[in-house]
Structures are given as structure tokens and as C-alpha cells.
Amino acid sequence: MINDSEYMSTSYICMVEDELNISDFVSRGLKDFGYEIDVFHNGQEAWNKLKADNRYDLLLLDIRMPGMTGLEICQHYREKYGYHTPILMLTALGTTEDIVMGLHAGADDYVVKPFKFAELIARIKAMLRRTQALQQNSLIYHDLTIDPSTHKAIRSNIEADLSVKEYRLLEYMMQHHGEVISRRQLLKDVWDKDFDTNTNIVDVYVKYLRTKIDDPFKTKLIHTIIGMGYMLK
């Protein structure tokens, strides 16, 4: 039996499902538990909305959709926004191959149709709890997450093996993302040096970071601002 007070929430959910009986049933149930929900019956329409407005705390995606499949939406969403928003796939395709395809596309979990609403709501709550706990303890920018308590850095679900100083440099840049950070500032705040020693140690470590954080990925986050320093953007 589900405890209403335990599951009440104000999280905002996007559901993409073309079977009206399922979307209506799930939508009513989620609203009863305090969720806000937008429902789309066409994949392309859903993606057009998501491209313009990333307000959602969780996505529910049916795999087989007109306009654009749930797998395609998932892939595009991960490429644009990273891995911070949980994605739950709804599928009648319960084979191992189909499930693996969904997870490889970037989904966090799946529910096979037909499903019981109690199972769906339990999975949603568990996914949102994990995400909220991670966000409370972590620094997040784009698809990059670092955890100060463990000194772990993860980009697009891939953990980077950083040295202590590499981690400290990345943490500082994330704390000041969108700002130009001079080499002198980095020497002072990351290396505890109050003067310019004419060393290239900052450039060397930025190169190390790029190798681990940027080079494996299409989108680059660490940028050189000529004559000024560096910026994470």
C-alpha cells in the first residue's frame, strides 16, 4: 500500500506517450500524487518543447512514438543537456536487446508495459531521490558533475581519473564557471602562490584537465581567453 504523504511531490514531469489510455491513466495518477505533468503524444512536438524549455525534473518516454522515437529524444536530450535529469523509458518491447538500447541511449531505468501504477510511482520517487541527493552534494555544470566529498568527477556518466591538483583546479573553475579566470588568480587560489613566479604550471595542468575532461567529448567546456586566462563555459 502506498503512503500518500511519502510520495507527494511538486516535481515537474514530461511524459511522451501516444497511447491515450496510458497517458491519461498515468497523468491522472501522477497529478493525484502532487506532480505537475506535461503530456505529449508526438515525439517531435515533445522534442521541440524540450529544446526550448528544460524545466523538467524527470522524463517519461515511450520508445515507439510518431514523429520521433523515445530513443531519439533521449539521445538528443543527453547531447544537449547532459545526464542530470533522470529519464525513465516506457516500453512494450521487453527484450534484453531493446532494454539495452534504451540504456545506451541515455535512459536511467525502464518499465515494461503493462505495468502497475504502484511500480511506476515507486521508480519515479527513487530516481528523483537519487537526483536530489546528488545535486545537494555536488557541483554541476552542463554534463559535468563533481562531488567534493569524494573528489570524483563525472562527465556524461564517465568518471575521470584526476589527481588531487587536477581536481582542485576543476573544482575552482566550476565554482567560477562563466567567469574569466586569470593565471595569477589560479596560482593564488589553487596553488597558494601570491605572486607570479613566471611558471607555466597553470597551463600544464589545464592541458592535463582538457585531456581528461574535454578531449573525449564533442562539446568543449574549458576555453582559453587569449591574453586573459581561462573560462569554463
UniProtKB/TrEMBL annotation:
<dbReference type="GO" id="GO:0006355">
    <property type="term" value="P:regulation of DNA-templated transcription"/>
</dbReference>
<dbReference type="GO" id="GO:0000156">
    <property type="term" value="F:phosphorelay response regulator activity"/>
</dbReference>
<dbReference type="GO" id="GO:0000976">
    <property type="term" value="F:transcription cis-regulatory region binding"/>
</dbReference>
<feature type="domain" description="Response regulatory">
    <location>
        <begin position="12"/>
        <end position="128"/>
    </location>
</feature>
<dbReference type="InterPro" id="IPR039420">
    <property type="entry name" value="WalR-like"/>
</dbReference>
<feature type="DNA-binding region" description="OmpR/PhoB-type">
    <location>
        <begin position="136"/>
        <end position="233"/>
    </location>
</feature>
<protein>
    <submittedName>
        <fullName>Transcriptional activator protein CopR</fullName>
    </submittedName>
</protein>
<feature type="domain" description="OmpR/PhoB-type">
    <location>
        <begin position="136"/>
        <end position="233"/>
    </location>
</feature>
<feature type="modified residue" description="4-aspartylphosphate">
    <location>
        <position position="62"/>
    </location>
</feature>
<dbReference type="Pfam" id="PF00072">
    <property type="entry name" value="Response_reg"/>
</dbReference>
<keyword id="KW-0902">Two-component regulatory system</keyword>
<keyword id="KW-0597">Phosphoprotein</keyword>
<dbReference type="InterPro" id="IPR001867">
    <property type="entry name" value="OmpR/PhoB-type_DNA-bd"/>
</dbReference>
<dbReference type="GO" id="GO:0005829">
    <property type="term" value="C:cytosol"/>
</dbReference>
<keyword id="KW-0804">Transcription</keyword>
<dbReference type="InterPro" id="IPR036388">
    <property type="entry name" value="WH-like_DNA-bd_sf"/>
</dbReference>
<dbReference type="Pfam" id="PF00486">
    <property type="entry name" value="Trans_reg_C"/>
</dbReference>
<keyword id="KW-0805">Transcription regulation</keyword>
<dbReference type="InterPro" id="IPR001789">
    <property type="entry name" value="Sig_transdc_resp-reg_receiver"/>
</dbReference>
<dbReference type="InterPro" id="IPR011006">
    <property type="entry name" value="CheY-like_superfamily"/>
</dbReference>
<dbReference type="GO" id="GO:0032993">
    <property type="term" value="C:protein-DNA complex"/>
</dbReference>
<keyword id="KW-0238">DNA-binding</keyword>
